[in-house]
Automatic annotation (TrEMBL):
Domain of life: Bacteria
Coiled coil region boundaries: none
Protein name: DUF5067 domain-containing protein
Domain DUF5067: 36-169
Species this protein is from: Pediococcus claussenii (strain ATCC BAA-344 / DSM 14800 / JCM 18046 / KCTC 3811 / LMG 21948 / P06)
UniProt cross-references to PROSITE patterns, sorted A to Z: PROKAR_LIPOPROTEIN
Keyword Chloroplast attached: no
Gene3D superfamilies per record: 2.60.40.1240
Keyword Signal attached: yes
Low complexity compositional bias, start-end: 25-40
Length: 184
């Protein structure tokens, strides 16, 4: 009788041990596979380019036109305004300003150091109404295959130092630059 009880107990403990062992292995396999999937995530292939004043990224083109400087909404400050025509070649709605400020950075060289400029705000006045309308267009949804005129602006640190626009791809690699000579 003792042998039967011991045999049943031994089988029961063996089943429990095997069950725990299998569960631990599956957990460690899941952890290892989640680690490897995090480290081996594929890098997004860049489709961004900048050539002859045309910046293309994510099926969107920004055709850069003229630029100018003007007063900022912040008293005593100036902004640099880059005008462009945006074309949405994609199949989804976009917000032009989201892409513009995500992939275009403006800097000024101040005392030998490149300083990143903050987004600018235009003052609202009757003289600036056209610019305000273009600025408003940049923050409005754009339908697929639509085209609008718009602008981007940055608050300048110095009203006499040139501004450099740097264009980046989805991997934050530089694809081009454009120098805006503010003294002309």
């Amino acid at each position: 009788m003792k042998k039967i009880v011991y045999s049943i107990l031994l089988v029961f403990i063996s089943v429990i041990m095997v069950g725990c062992s299998t569960q631990s292995k599956s957990k460690s396999n899941k952890t290892a596979s989640s680690r490897s999937s995090k480290t081996s995530a594929p890098t997004q292939i860049s489709d961004a380019s900048f050539k002859n004043g045309l910046f293309t990224i994510e099926n969107i083109t920004f055709d850069l036109n003229k630029f100018k400087t003007g007063p900022s909404a912040t008293e005593g400050k100036d902004v640099i305004i880059q005008y462009f025509t945006v074309t949405n070649h994609g199949s989804k709605k976009i917000m032009p300003s989201d892409l513009w400020y995500k992939y275009v950075v403006a800097t000024q060289n101040i005392n030998g150091r490149n300083k990143k400029l903050e987004k600018g705000s235009l003052p609202f006045s009757t003289a600036a109404t056209k610019d305000n309308n273009l600025e408003n267009a940049s923050v409005s949804e754009m339908k697929p295959h639509d085209q609008i005129d718009s602008l981007g602006s940055w608050q300048m640190i110095s009203s006499t130092a040139d501004v450099e626009l740097t264009f980046y791809d989805q991997n934050h690699k530089q694809v081009g630059t454009r120098n805006l000579n503010v003294n002309n």
